[in-house]
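My current task is to audit a protein record that another person submitted. Thanks in advance; the entry in question is below:
***
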Amino acid sequence: MHNSVMKRILKKTLIIASTILFTACVQTQSPKPTKGRASSFGTPIRATSQYGYPPRDYREKIKNYFSNKIKRADSAHYTFSKPQRAYKRKGLAYGGDIAWRGWMVDVAIETESRTGRMQRPKPYMVLFSNSMIVEDIMGREHKLITRVGD
């Protein structure tokens, strides 16, 4: 009798523990960006109060910014997108909160090789806050960056 009671208790404990384990591992959905305006509570607010104004003279600022970061910057060819609203989250280890909110410009930079041939363009995402560059990220996408439509 004592053995069957222990088996039932062990079985219930195993079921409860596995349920807790599997529900803790379920991935939660990240919030989807709204079109242009939203606060963290879903209340519409003015877009300029969240993201600021689009960067001024962003092409010159980006060229100056990369002039010390890339080789042969004086002969580089730049291709720019229009500035767009975006935000960047902190990693999940840091809570996943929004770390930056502002404007982003996609840039492709084509530079010369040592032999004088033009190399394949390298894509960058340049993040702006109050018309100042805060960060550049190589590539066209990043897990923590979300583009917000107009």
